[in-house]
Amino acid sequence: MRVLHVITGLAAGGAEQQLRQLLPRLPADCAVVTLTNPGIVAEAIARDGIRVIDLGMRGNRDLTALPRLVRLIRDGRYDVVHTHLYRAAVYGRIAARLAGVRAVVSTEHSLGDDRIEGRRRSASVRALYLATERLGTVTIAVSRTVERRLVDWGVPPERIVLIPNGIVAEEFRYDGRLRDRTRAAWGVGADTVVVGAVGRLEPGKRVDVLIRALARIPRTVLVIVGDGSARSTLTRLAHAAGVADRVVFTGETAEVRPLLCGMDVVASASPEETFGLAILEALACGLPAVQVTCPALDELLPEAAPRVVRVPCEVETFAEHLAAAVPAATRREPPPAVQHYAIDRLAIDVATLYERARDRLASPPGPGNRHQAHPLEDRVL
Which CATH superfamily is domain 169-340 in? Predict the structure, then answer.
């Protein structure tokens, strides 16, 4: 089976890293098209031996990208087109149908309560999403939270399949030597508590809460992993709060393991998430976590992740819980939640869905999902 993945961009991010980890495990001949921004994840995918094509799209309304994508799909004779993120879903679904591919799968990674892929969920954005959704075969929701949001937004429940994200736990295992090297690079001593924040630096992630909390905690360093539009604002805030000497901005990285090894606790003040990969990866490294919401864990029993504390998005509360962290040169074993979300399970479920999508079926890939198999009617442009 030949599968073309279409994604909005390939800078460091949860959806992008998820695709990188999934591709080598799929029993299919895969290629990837990035509409724009072929960043460090594109380089990592290419190193894995998978073809990556940069479509060179110049903006959301660059309609010249559509015929180029149609030709690429048609020339590649793909059996399935799998889209990731909002812009790629809109253009990819249309292009696939124009190219004659009817098995079109979309993974919804980024649908929040009031935003999708960083843009506000306006009436026009919703209308375009729903119009192109009907050109696809099925939409994968990465969590029950996303499934609920899709239904609330108007996607028929029978066109949604719940397939949670997965991680490669071994890629995040703790290594004491990495800890020592990483902390030396940061200029951090063995007795200093290091709080980590991993993710895109956008206003909705509320990293500002962690910086303000840091100002109330002595002898603690905050390491911020990622990049985005809010970086300059956060840098100014760190200076204004008097903690610039205790905040480390690492920028984007496709290799987060050494950084996790150097941390003592991971924090996320984001009040709206679709899955929470960063928290799950931290747990795989044996770290405790303080977070506002993480659907991957919120949808499991508390004992699946006993060292995770859920708190409101408040400076005082974060300061209180992060102040209780202690330097940890050793780690505990990853909790059961890590194995629950194994990447191999994800790959099996997605591959099974491809087979059914190719036959124009939208049945769920495993016994744990709720929707029953049903034939999809033919839909044409």
Answer: Glycogen Phosphorylase B; (3.40.50.2000)
Pairing verdict, β 138-141 and 119-120: unpaired
Answer whether 206's CB lies under 8 Å from 224's CB.
Answer: no
Please tell me whether residue 291 adopts helix, strand or coil conformation.
strand
Closest by Cα among 63, 66, 57, 1 to 29: 1
Residue 192 corresponds to which amino acid?
A: T
Query: Distance between CA 4 and CA 194 in Å, rounded?
Result: 41
pLDDT digits (tens, 9 = 90+) for 14-57: 899 999 999 999 999 999 999 998 989 999 999 999 999 999 99
What is the rounded distance in angstroms from the CA atom of residue 153 to the CA atom of residue 161? 15
Q: Look at residue 36 and give its three-state secondary structure.
A: coil
Question: What tokens does 135 get?
Answer: 């050109």
Q: What is the reported pLDDT for 360?
A: 64
CATH H-level superfamily of 2-166+342-358: Glycogen Phosphorylase B; (3.40.50.2000)
Q: How many CA atoms lie within 13 A of 12 on its CB side?
A: 17
Q: Which two tokens stand for residue 27?
A: 């029993």
Which of 25-39, 186-200, 283-297, 348-362 shows the lowest per-residue confidence on average (mean pLDDT)? 348-362
Q: Where are the alpha helices (DSSP H) in the chain?
A: 14-22, 40-47, 65-76, 86-98, 123-133, 144-153, 176-186, 207-214, 231-240, 257-261, 277-284, 295-298, 315-323, 336-340, 343-358
Indicate the burial class of 299 (C-beta count within 10 angstroms; 0-12, 13-18, 19 or more). middle
Q: Is the model's pLDDT at 374 over the cut of 60?
A: no
Q: Give SS3 for 96.
A: helix
Q: Please give the model's pTM, rounded to 2 decimal places.
A: 0.88
69 CB-side CA count, 13 A: 34
d(CA 345, CA 366): 10
Long-range contacts of 318-322 (CB under 8 A, 24+ apart): 318/209, 318/210, 318/213, 318/267, 318/269, 318/290, 319/213, 319/214, 319/216, 319/217, 321/290, 322/193, 322/195, 322/210, 322/213, 322/214, 322/217, 322/220, 322/265, 322/267, 322/290
Question: How far from 247 is each of 186, 193, 199, 213, 230, CA to CA, in Å?
Answer: 10, 12, 15, 12, 15
Q: Which amino acid does the sequence have at 78?
A: Y
Residue spans in the chain of domains classed CATH 3.40.50.2000: 2-166+342-358, 169-340
